[in-house]
Amino acid sequence: MKYEIPKEIKSKPKIVGLEMRELVIILISSLLLLTVLRELVHSLFILFYFGVAIVGMIYLFLPSGNNPEKRNYESILLMFRHKKGVYHAMDRNEVENEQFLKDKEGE
């Protein structure tokens, strides 16, 4: 008897490639942007407003270029949540350290 082992056990339910949480965020933000805030826009700019709002929402749900496996809206949230008091060590002499290691290995 041969059993198939699923590769992904913790998969989240998706509709049209988006998770349920993302769909709720899209629905709430589109309701807010396209109905409530519409009255704050002059009538000459309504079409421009709708275009920018729709393109902006699409951008927010595209995969982030800097953070793998995250969307752009999650990257923005991480940017606002980061703690400024946390210290992260940076290797300032990366090239010199590589040269030093090569010299040590050559000896």
Describe the protein's architecture and organization:
By secondary structure, this protein is mainly α. The protein has four helices and two strands; from the N terminus they run ββαααα. The protein is 51% helix and 4% strand. β1 (14-15) and β2 (18-19) form a beta hairpin. α1 runs antiparallel to α2 (46-60). The longest helix has 17 residues, at 20-36. The protein is flat and about 75 Å long. The model has no long low-confidence stretch (mean pLDDT 80). Pfam families: DUF5592 (PF17332). This is PrgI family protein. Keywords: Membrane, Transmembrane, Transmembrane helix.
Helices and strands in order:
Elements: E1 14-15, E2 18-19, H1 20-36, H2 46-60, H3 72-81, H4 94-106
Antiparallel strand pairs: 1-2
